[in-house]
Specification:
37% helix, five-stranded parallel β-sheet, nine-stranded mixed β-sheet, Spore Coat Polysaccharide Biosynthesis Protein SpsA, Chain A, alpha/beta, Rossmann fold
């Protein structure tokens, strides 16, 4: 194995005695050996320092240990730790997580086999319970990276490894931050260059209630948005994008300023089940000028949008009708045999994508509509019929409700006539005609 690159593993910690030993041991268990471990104690008052010093006394040539007398926050600790590290590449290991044995070998190989302008990478990860037992592949593994997506979600998770020369060209870690430090760093790295995504799970992420993201959820959300807004300003995108969010930051959406206006008084909700063409309909509504959100995780975010679709919307149409009176509701439908076939194919792809263990949020959303997360043609068909009949009965006689089959002809005409009923479309007649001269958005099976 070529071991040309010295890799600095950086671990900052504050009162992490419950997990720190396992984190350090995972570094010593690496098959790659050209590394140093930088441990930065951010003013711990528990037994963390004793654990770190135990390893330092045994391996002084491999470990650098420093301690602040007071807890200054994650941003300061990470900034200082990176500054004192000496590796050509550094990666960040949280004190409550662990590395897989091949993690640093993978990092070395990627940087060895790519040109010097490749500045950073991130890998897949697995989620573990508080005792370190593996639960599933990470739920963020399949988030698609883009500079836009990074503004409202964490695309680049663990393990991140960064070439030092690349990092030096960025504004570096913000040492004043006590939350959302990793998000801020990701945004700055993104502005310097695109990362490589290594789809191997070499990082073990521990789920427990004492993580900063759990303990300081609101502060994390506030800082997350502030960092994204700063990135929008740095990139000169202030005239194009802005962020909207719920009061508790449980849902953060990136919006285009061309739709920045007071939401329309009459909202539009697609209340069809998944695989009935909701994606195509959502895109069509968006093309007609509606500020649209797909698959919101929180109903509170709907106050910022004109239209919405997907699981939570389908499950909440009665509540939405009460909350937003006079709104329009569109029930997408599809012949049941092809709908079941589509679901079966989708379920197979999902299981393959998540290594036969669906993320909990996927299970929760399925249970919300189908009372179980395992796909079953008989159960799904019964739930389809129940949802269809319930929605039809609830909206019986309501002119603001329509059943919409995206496989039929005259879809644009039917949609625009319904949306224009008792209200004005967001676009002018000329603009609407220009949109509807295009093909209706493609339908995915």
């Amino acid at each position: 194995m070529v071991q040309d690159i010295k890799i600095s593993v950086i671990t900052t910690f504050y009162n992490a005695e419950a997990y720190l030993r396992q984190a350090i041991e995972s570094v010593f268990n690496q098959e790659y050996t050209n590394w140093e471990l930088v441990l930065w104690d951010d003013g711990s008052t528990d037994g963390s320092e004793a654990i770190a010093r135990e390893f330092l006394s045994q391996y002084p040539e491999k470990i650098y240990l420093a301690k602040d007398n007071t807890n200054k926050g994650r941003g300061n600790a990470l900034y200082e730790a990176i500054e004192v590290s000496t590796g050509e590449v550094f990666c960040i290991l949280d004190a409550d997580d662990r590395l897989g044995t091949k993690a640093l070998s993978l990092v070395n190989n990627v940087f060895i086999n790519n040109p010097p302008n490749v500045g950073w990478l991130y890998t897949n990860y697995t989620e573990c319970d508080k005792d370190g037992n593996q639960l599933r592949l990470g739920t963020k593994n399949n988030i698609i990276y883009s500079r836009l997506n990074e503004l409202h979600t964490m695309c680049c998770f663990h393990l991140r490894a960064i070439r030092r020369s690349f990092y030096e060209e960025t504004p570096k870690v913000n040492r004043t931050l006590t939350a959302a430090v990793d998000h801020d760093l990701n945004l700055k790295l993104s502005e310097q260059g695109k990362p490589i995504h290594i789809k191997k799970a070499v990082y073990k992420y521990r789920l427990h209630s004492n993580r900063i993201s759990v303990e300081k959820k609101k502060e994390q959300g506030e800082t997350f948005v502030a960092c994204s807004e700063a990135a929008i300003k740095r990139r000169g995108w202030e005239g194009r994008y802005y962020l909207s969010h719920t009061e508790d930051y449980s849902s953060i959406q990136l919006c285009e300023k061309k739709y920045l206006r007071e939401p329309l008084p009459q909202k539009v909700f697609c209340v069809g089940l998944g695989r009935t063409g909701t994606r195509s309909l959502t895109r069509a509504i968006q093309m007609l000028g509606y500020n649209t959100v797909k698959n919101p995780r929180d109903l509170n975010v709907l106050q910022y949008f004109d239209a919405a679709s997907d699981v939570l919307i389908a499950a909440s149409y009665q509540q939405l009708d009460e909350t937003y009176p006079n709104s329009k509701f569109i029930l997408t439908v599809r012949d049941i045999p092809s709908w079941l076939d589509s679901w079966e194919q989708h379920n197979t792809r999902s299981l393959s994508r998540f290594n036969n263990e669906l993320p909990q949020w996927v299970k929760d959303f399925r249970i919300m509509l189908y009372s179980q997360w395992e796909f079953d043609r008989t159960v799904w068909q019964a739930k389809y019929n129940q949802h269809y009949n319930s929605a039809r009965n609830y909206f019986s006689g309501n002119s603001n409700f329509i059943v919409f089959n995206i496989f039929e002809d005259d879809r644009w005409q039917k949609l625009t006539q319904f949306l224009a009923l008792n209200s004005d479309l967001p676009l002018s007649v000329t603009e609407t005609n220009k949109v509807t001269s295009n093909k209706f958005p493609a339908i995915k099976n």
